[in-house]
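Incident log, support desk, overnight shift.

02:14 A customer reports that sequence design results differ from what the structure should imply. Their input is reproduced verbatim below. On-call engineer (initials T.W.) acknowledged and began investigating.
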């Protein structure tokens, strides 16, 4: 009788242990599997944010007809650089995940159905399915799904990022290739040059955002880095004079490296293809061709005197610009009334922000001639559709800085 009772007790203990294990696995699943889903959703949210911000950058940027197609491509590229599931798997962004609307709370349509002239908001909605639980499968729970979405638009910035380069209001204003100068005297597509040498004036010159700061080293770091990102209209800046060593930092944006600068320190643009009067005789509107060169990640043409008339004396980056490049040659710079630098404190206020294209690397003297540095004026940086959708901090409804992509949902 006692032996039978012991056998029954052993069976009960086994049953209790089995039930306890199921319960423990269930609790463990709640913690681990739900935590895993939460992390997947957070990682997916980061990808959606990146996708929406990258796509919003292209809204309204000429040519308008294909702006939404470019926005989709940008969103897919940048969003797809993210990973999920503890960074173990790449995010997949399809064209159908990116939609557009003219109002925040309205119907969002794919790029083929949306009106590119009216699109103001872009939404990236990224799903992820087929996430198999690690522990909850024991309880018969199958694959799970998560999703994340973000909505972005272009907003006026309260601060913006710019190179330490000020462009002077032309006197008198004139458009050499036709058209009417804008409110600050500039003409879209026109080239403006300056030799950036002691005693030589020109359309632009180096400026110092912090006159009591670090001189050439500070300015070089700004050019090879992201620029100065605490700029506001009416902010006063100094005229530091000429800084001969800054050409190295400038040229790095074309994939041309000198001295101690490397790709890891100074990111190049997606293309180093350069423009000078020798290979672009019209000296006007090279931006359209620049965008074509960017699509194929063309490198700088090297120091060919016959084609460019340049002598950078630098080392050309030979790797894949599609992997290391960024938007580095379409830049924001302050518009100045350079006559103000003649005043007692040698400072001048920022009047507005210009969007310019850096046309070519800076050159060493070639046959006794020092070519000017040239930029192409692309318009005001705060204009709708400006190519200079720059890094910066989105502002309130009364902000007046250049437009930047900002998340609105």
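02:41 Re-run completed on a clean worker. Output:
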């Amino acid at each position: 009788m006692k032996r039978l009772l012991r056998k029954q007790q052993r069976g009960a203990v086994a049953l209790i242990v089995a039930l306890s294990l199921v319960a423990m696995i269930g609790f463990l699943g709640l913690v681990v599997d739900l935590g895993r889903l939460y992390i997947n959703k957070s990682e997916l949210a980061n990808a959606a944010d990146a996708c929406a911000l990258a796509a919003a950058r292209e809204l309204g940027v000429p040519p308008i007809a294909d702006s939404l197609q470019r926005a989709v491509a940008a969103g897919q590229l940048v969003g797809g650089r993210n990973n999920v599931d503890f960074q173990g798997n790449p995010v997949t962004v399809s064209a159908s995940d990116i939609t557009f609307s003219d109002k925040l709370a309205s119907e969002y349509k794919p790029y083929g159905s949306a009106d590119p002239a009216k699109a103001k908001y872009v939404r990236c909605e990224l799903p992820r399915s087929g996430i198999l639980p690690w522990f909850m499968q024991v309880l018969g729970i199958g694959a799970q799904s998560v999703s994340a979405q973000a909505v972005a638009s272009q907003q006026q910035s309260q601060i913006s990022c710019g190179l330490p380069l000020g462009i002077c209001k032309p006197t008198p204003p004139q458009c050499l290739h036709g058209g009417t100068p804008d409110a600050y005297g500039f003409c879209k597509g026109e080239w403006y040059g300056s030799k950036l040498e002691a005693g030589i004036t020109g359309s632009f010159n180096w400026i110092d955002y912090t006159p009591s700061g670090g001189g050439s080293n500070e300015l070089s770091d700004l050019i090879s880095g992201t620029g100065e990102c605490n700029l506001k209209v009416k902010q006063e800046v100094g005229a530091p004079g000429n800084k001969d060593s800054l050409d190295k930092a400038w040229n790095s944006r074309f994939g041309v490296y000198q001295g101690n600068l490397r790709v890891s320190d100074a990111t190049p643009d997606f293309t180093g293809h350069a423009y000078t009067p020798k290979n672009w005789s019209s000296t006007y509107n090279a931006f359209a061709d620049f965008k074509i060169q960017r699509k194929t990640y063309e490198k700088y043409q090297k120091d060919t005197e016959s084609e460019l008339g340049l002598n950078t004396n630098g080392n050309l980056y030979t790797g894949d610009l599609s992997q290391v490049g960024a938007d580095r040659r379409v830049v924001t710079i302050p518009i100045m009334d350079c006559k103000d630098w003649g005043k007692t404190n040698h400072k001048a206020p920022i009047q507005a922000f210009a969007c310019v294209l850096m046309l070519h690397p800076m050159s060493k003297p070639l046959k006794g001639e020092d070519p000017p540095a040239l930029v192409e004026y692309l318009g005001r940086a705060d204009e709708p559709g400006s190519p200079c959708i720059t890094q910066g901090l989105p502002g309130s409804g009364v902000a007046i800085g250049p437009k930047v992509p900002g998340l609105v949902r």
